[in-house]
Amino acid sequence: MITPKYNIGILPIIFVLFAGFLHSAEQKVYRVPIQGVIDLGLPAFVERVIEEAENDQVEVIIFDIDTFGGRVDAATQIKDAILGSGVPTVAFINRRAISAGALISLSCETIYMTSGGTIGAATAVDMSGKKASEKVISYMREEMASTAESRDRNTIIAKCMVDEELSFTHVIIDGDSVEVTDLEGRKEGKLITLTTEQALKYKIADGTAEDMDELLASLELSEATVKSFSENWSENLVRFLTNPVVASLLTTFGFLGILFELQSPGWGIPGTFGAVCLALSLGASAIVKLATMSDLLIVLVGLVLLMVEGFLIPGFGIAGVAGIGVILWGLYLLLLPDVPVSEEVYHSALTGLTIGLIGGVIALVLLFRMVTKTKFWTKLTFPGVESQEEGYSTSIGLENLVGKSGVATSDLRPSGWVLLGDQKIFVVTEGEFVKKDQSIKILSVDGNRVVVRVNAIES
After folding, report:
1. Strand, coil or helix: what is 36?
2. What is the pTM assigned to this prediction?
3. Fewer Cβ in 10 A, N or C end of the chain?
4. CA 104, 339, 101 angle in degrees (round to 5)?
């Protein structure tokens, strides 16, 4: 009776040891490249990898960094994702982490650098190198300081990477006050950029490694399986759609498509095309957190004003003009992040919107001219035209209707449908607005073009 009890008691221990062996044998490391320009396509990519790493019980996520920086709002989103990660994170500065790259590096729990590497120079500038406004500098300065503080790194050095107007003589390292003499950035008018040796000395970096193998050895993960990631098609698509020029073209096509749809009865191709373009633009902006609820509400208000103008108020007046203005303002805001940014971002958004508007109008005009010459358009706009088997003819047999009266079955803006007896035909006015159910009179017939005006008797 004693032997069975002993065997049953030892089984759980064997199981735990075996499970521990399997766990150690299946160590996994995720490698995430952050290289080149940091843009709005990167945060979604980083968030996806972190979520997958948490579900996959990965040992560590290594961010392989080599960048001169990029968008502050994108770097801030990445920083927030890393700070909230449930998996240990390592920044491997593989040559340089400048500007926004420095913020991302500081958010990681551990920083390793290659020899000859650099980190710092995180002040916000535009494409011409001009310093951003104090509002932007203040925001970036405190972002760097709070991120460094959260990882137990020196906040003074982090601030001086952003603001050259700061200066200092001593820093606290391991509880001791250390005089700083080898950093040019300690002086007012100079930004701090640390070499690998300086980063190690002032406890910004934790170690050095020349390649991924050496880094894994330092982390005691030499036997781990390394899985490298890259952006998938959807993340690349979002990056493309949020390009200021592309986003502006989409919103312009969407706006013009819906506006054109309001000028014709029913719902057709222009409205559907416009709705798809707006959905792509707004959807991509929402994914990268450019679109806030207030921005979307502004665009919605503009669309409501246009609909009021199109369906309730004849002609085109104050409501229509106001709707266009509100929509344009909303579209401009959709191109801007919800954090302080440099003037360059504002100019880029405005330039993109302008190019999008001009390009959209030109493209729509050319497209309309091409489409209206096709047989498909003729059949679509006037389904009563003769079929190809019967032979096409300039005349469609309506010349005898000149002078006849009928009733508008839809608003004519200036085109629409009217009923003459039991015959329904597509007509245009001379430019005037005709309400539904108003009596009309046919003035002329030229091929498939039927011109009408309000019946003088009714008017």
Report:
1. strand
2. 0.59
3. N
4. 15
